[in-house]
């Protein structure tokens, strides 16, 4: 009884105040993290907002044809790329649920694009799709067809960017959705089989509802990442043809270096904040919803 009373009247560790050496050590551990946060996060963001604070910069952007084209290309690039990648990742996650050894081996091999350096893969995509590249040489040798100059056509160049980005990121989303599928209790699969829900019906009535929140979270996160993607459109299409496939990230870098106008370059990228902030808020809310469900 006395031990219970002592535990009851002892101060909770969460509310215990630090004094003397403990307080000194706590400050010593916190200060480096605070310094790094300020130097590499808070200061660059604040400085960027200050650089792009003039309304005239945004008036200049919206009056520019190349910037409007970049906005349209970004919308197409992100909307098609994210939905294609997530849908294919969902299908592949179902395929990799199979227990055969060769399926597990294919899962390991499928992770290689995600593990490989992005720059090497994207440069390879670029050289494969130029007029005298690997893709046209293959078409000529196999079918006797002379392929087009892929990067000279807007939709082909945009499709090349999307294909390269999906090649790089789809293995990651497949692995995430596969983990979500494996977290579904086997009892639910057995109950669905008893009720006659197999194949497509089991997928639509069991898997889809249980993976819906995870799928939405992955889609939001992929959208945020893809809006800020620079490597793919820069290294695969290089903005071809004639800058038509530039996105917000690449057009901002062109303003920054080619035009020697850093304020306009920062403004070009910060113009995406009205889209990124609601996506971030929605993502956090969905994560909280998942925590409540757990």
The structural class is mainly alpha
Biggest sheet statistics: none
Percentage of residues in DSSP E strands: under 5%
Helical content (DSSP H or I, runs of 4+):
over 70%
CATH superfamily of the largest domain: MetI-like
Kindly provide the name of the CATH class of the largest domain.
Answer: Mainly Alpha
Q: Residue ranges: pLDDT <50 for 5 or more in a row?
A: 1-10
Tally the structural domains: 2
Shape: globular
Just name the CATH architecture of the largest domain: Orthogonal Bundle
Number of helical runs? Answer: 15
Q: Could you tell me the number of beta strands?
A: 0
Distance between the termini: 36 Å
Q: How is the CATH topology of the largest domain named?
A: MetI-like fold
Rg, Cα atoms, Å: 25 Å
Order of helices and strands: HHHHHHHHHHHHHHH
Overall pLDDT level: 86
């Amino acid at each position: 009884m006395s031990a219970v009373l002592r535990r009851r009247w002892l101060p909770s560790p969460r509310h215990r105040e630090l004094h003397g050496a403990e307080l000194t050590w706590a400050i010593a551990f916190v200060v480096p993290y605070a310094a790094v946060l300020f130097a590499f996060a808070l200061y660059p963001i604040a400085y960027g907002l200050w650089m792009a604070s003039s309304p005239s910069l945004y008036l200049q952007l919206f009056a520019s044809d190349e910037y409007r084209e970049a906005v349209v290309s970004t919308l197409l690039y992100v909307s098609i790329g994210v939905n294609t990648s997530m849908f294919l990742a969902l299908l592949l996650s179902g395929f990799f649920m199979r227990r055969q050894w060769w399926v597990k081996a294919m899962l390991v091999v499928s992770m290689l694009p995600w593990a490989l350096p992005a720059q090497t893969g994207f440069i390879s995509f670029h050289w494969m799709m130029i007029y005298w590249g690997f893709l046209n040489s293959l078409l000529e040798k196999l079918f006797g067809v002379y392929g087009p100059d892929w990067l000279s056509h807007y939709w082909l160049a945009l499709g090349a960017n999307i294909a390269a980005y999906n090649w790089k990121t789809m293995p990651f989303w497949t692995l995430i959705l596969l983990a979500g599928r494996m977290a579904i209790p086997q009892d639910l699969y057995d109950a669905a089989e008893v009720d006659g829900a197999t194949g497509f019906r089991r997928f639509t009535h069991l898997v889809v509802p249980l993976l819906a929140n995870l799928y939405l979270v992955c889609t939001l996160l992929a959208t945020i990442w893809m809006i800020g993607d620079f490597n793919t459109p820069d290294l695969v299409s290089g903005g071809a043809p004639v800058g038509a496939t530039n996105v917000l990230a690449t057009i901002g870098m062109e303003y920054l270096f080619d035009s020697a106008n850093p304020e306009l370059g920062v403004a070009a990228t910060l113009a995406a904040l009205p889209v990124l902030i609601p996506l971030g808020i929605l993502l956090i809310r969905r994560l909280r919803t998942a925590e409540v469900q757990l």
